[in-house]
Specification:
Strand content: 25-35%
Number of strands: 7
Oligomer: single chain
Number of domains: 1
InterPro entries: Kinesin_motor_dom_sf (IPR036961), Myosin_head_motor_dom-like (IPR001609), Myosin_S1_N (IPR008989), P-loop_NTPase (IPR027417), SH3_Myosin (IPR004009)
Organism: Micrurus paraensis
CATH class: Mainly Beta
Keywords: Actin-binding, ATP-binding, Coiled coil, Membrane, Motor protein, Myosin, Nucleotide-binding, Transmembrane, Transmembrane helix
Pfam family, one: Myosin_N
CATH architecture: Roll
Largest sheet: 5 strands, antiparallel
Family: Belongs to the TRAFAC class myosin-kinesin ATPase superfamily. Myosin family.
CATH topology: SH3 type barrels
Number of helices: 4
Length: about 130
């Protein structure tokens, strides 16, 4: 496989990802990850912090729930969407790593670096 062919499974077009409107929307909503039995983690908007708990609004259905602050994980800005090297993530946590790998896999980007190590997710299909 030629280098150029292999690159299409690693690199994403940053011009498509770096959207200033998405950045502003992310900052205004205070987006975070919260645990979910169904999906592992799901996006939510941080509404209020009260002592050791926080009130978040789930992105999927708009439902407000009270959750322990320790269970909340910060979400990365949109400019880190489908990032090639996860060491670049500003919020390096379980939810962000899983979300990045999932986004990249569904976009056909099966190779992802984590520092010096390459993470490969098998697409279970023949590649050119």
């Amino acid at each position: 496989m030629a280098q150029k062919d292999a690159d299409k499974y690693l690199y994403v077009d940053r011009n498509v990802i770096n959207n200033p409107l998405a950045q502003a929307d992310w900052a205004a909503k205070k987006l975070v990850w919260v645990p979910s039995e169904k999906n592992g983690f799901e996006p939510a908007s941080l509404k209020e912090e009260v002592g050791d708990e926080a009130i978040v609004e789930l992105a999927e259905n708009g439902k407000k729930v009270r959750i322990n602050k320790d269970d909340i994980q910060k979400m990365n800005p949109p400019k880190f969407s489908k990032v090639e090297d996860m060491a670049e993530l500003t919020c390096l946590n379980e939810a962000s790593v899983l979300h990045n790998l999932k986004e990249r896999y569904y976009s056909g980007l099966i190779y992802t670096y984590s520092g010096l190590f390459c993470v490969v997710i098998n697409p279970y299909k023949n590649l050119p």
